[in-house]
Amino acid sequence: MNIKKKLIRLDWILRAQLGIDIKKLFTAFFRIPSYIVDLIRFKRVYKGELKLVPSLHDRFSSNGDYEHEYFWQDLFVAQNIFNANPSIHLDIGSRIDGFVSNLATCREVTVIDIREQTTKIPNVSFEQANLMDSSSISIYSNHFESISCLHTIEHFGLGRYGDPIMIDGFDIGFVNIVSMLKKGGILYLSTPISSRSYVEFNSNRVSNFNKIILSSEELDLTIKDFRTITENGVSKSLIENPQHGMRDVGDYILGLFIIEKN
Questions:
Q1: Which domains does the chain have, with CATH numbers?
Q2: Which of 113, 124, 143, 259 has the most other CB atoms within 10 Å of its CB?
Q3: How far apart are alpha carbons 258 and 221 in whole angstroms?
Q4: What is the pLDDT of residues 184-209, one digit of tens each?
């Protein structure tokens, strides 16, 4: 791992896990002077009640948080499901405040997650279950014609979300998810991939992309489309030459597989 990637990982640990945003803390000192100048100009004219609530960073950011893989993943898959218009769709563990809410604006969605959902959301039917435990989802055997599992399966068995530690959690979860899919049904699966497999404990797994291909073949599945996703968007289809699509990706990229159950 080069220096840049190490710094990015350190920043994520400090910011997302410890609540320390070094970048914002550093840049704030350089943005305070312009805030003070604007405040003085405003107070010269405004004579009403005034409360100071500094917002130092917004003028320097874009008009939305779309420079990350989640945004492009959620948009692309939601558009695919909207166009396919399945009679019933199941989502497993994807972002409620992103992908699921996108779908729920125009259709009903069934959601299964190991974490509880504390608020009733319109058009969202929720069930709490452990996807590594086949008995908890046996009633849904061959039930759904459309399933999404986005940036989720790589966490199975690592304890991050209160799930039990299970070394082969990814493999068991994949089998169980496929068991809920009808013949001819479509699975939208995204997970970090690379040219090799490794674990970033207890954050996520990164899978050799050939593992997804081989596992799909063993379960009598057909990969209909394969793409990679970065903060810049979704790649063109790589299904004709997946090896070519994996060239020069380094040790991490988000892979999106659209899989049909034969």
A1: 3-60 (no CATH), 69-261 (3.40.50.150)
A2: 259
A3: 10
A4: 999 999 999 998 999 999 999 999 99
